[in-house]
Amino acid sequence: MTDAPLTAPQIAAMIDHAILKPEFTRDEVDAQLATAAEYGIFSVCVRPSDVAHAVEVLEGTGVAVGTVIGFPHGTTSTAAKVAESRQAIADGAVELDMVQNIGWLRSGLVDEVEADIRAVVEAADGLVVKVILETVFLTPDEIVAASKAAERAGAAFVKTSTGFAGGGATIDDLTLMRDSVSENVQVKASGGVRDLDTLLAMHAIGVTRFGTSGTKTILDDARARGEGLEVDASVDESSY
Fold first, then answer.
1. Within a 10 A sphere around the Cβ of 162, how many other Cβ atoms?
2. Residue 234 has what pLDDT?
3. Which of 91, 97, 116, 173 is catalytic?
4. Is residue 188 among the annotated active site residues?
5. 216 has catalytic annotation
6. pLDDT given for residue 167 in this prediction
7. For residues 168 and 173, what is the distance between their CA atoms, to the nearest angstrom?
8. Could you say which of 50, 116, 159, 173 is catalytic?
9. Domain ranges of the chain
10. Beta strand spans in the chain (E)
């Protein structure tokens, strides 16, 4: 939990700008990369095939490049996830957001899920790995099991959603995830984080990274409001 007010630059430093729509053209990708550079956000999360290009375009901007693994369903084999991870790193990615095998988790195959995650963590060789749980498909008990498996496997973050499954981050799910892992593991909210008040409410419960395509809207609002941004007590956080 954190009650400390934030500044616009601090918010920018917690944003992974999502550039993942399959239909995006190269020109549309470049426009999104330009937005990321303009706002000085922490990183972009791009499609695997765009990693090398994004690294080249963003060179010298300070914006890191990450990508997704086993996206968006998590059902590719462990070997395929490992190969995809190694290629992404060779292309210049410095963070990997992998989708857990959702069907395995829901089948109670927690050991297999953990092994799948661990293989990607080992392939990442010290780089940040975030594990996407896809919480919309999971019960509270499954969210707890998946979060704990991710920590045992060495993941740096647990993350709510791909943004492609018809559901997104909620305060209840994020709270459960935060409570299920130690302080060694961070929590990333993704899916439905489109405005500043949502981001602030989620940060207040311990979320430290945000995957969003609403970067411009969020940061324009933050800049307009000025310094010392914090949760508005009138906002109903349970609606997120």
1. 26
2. 46
3. 97
4. yes
5. no
6. 83
7. 10
8. 159
9. 8-239
10. 15-19, 43-46, 64-69, 95-99, 128-132, 157-159, 186-190, 209-212
In this predicted model, what pLDDT tens digit does every residue of 108-150 receive, in sequence order?
999 999 999 999 999 999 999 999 999 999 999 999 999 999 9
What pLDDT, in 10s, does the model give residues 218-239?
999 999 987 667 765 444 554 4
CATH topology (fold) of 8-239:
TIM Barrel (3.20.20)
Token code pair at residue 95 = 């963070």
Mean pLDDT by 10 residues, the chain (240 residues): 77 98 98 98 98 98 98 98 98 98 98 98 98 98 98 98 92 98 98 94 97 96 82 51
Q: Which residues of 208-235 are buried (b: 16+ CB within 10 A; e: fewer)?
A: ebbbbbbbeebbebbeeeeeebebeeee
Per the structure block, which two tokens stand in for 125?
A: 């060789």
Q: In the annotation, is 97 catalytic?
A: yes
CA pair distance 44, 225, nearest whole angstrom: 24
Helical (H) or strand (E) element with 142? helix 140-152
Helix (H, G, I), strand (E, B) or coil at 23: coil
For 159-201, the DSSP string reads E---S-SS----HHHHHHHHHHS-TTSEEEEESS--SHHHHHH
- As given in the structure block, the two tokens for residue 140 are 């509270």
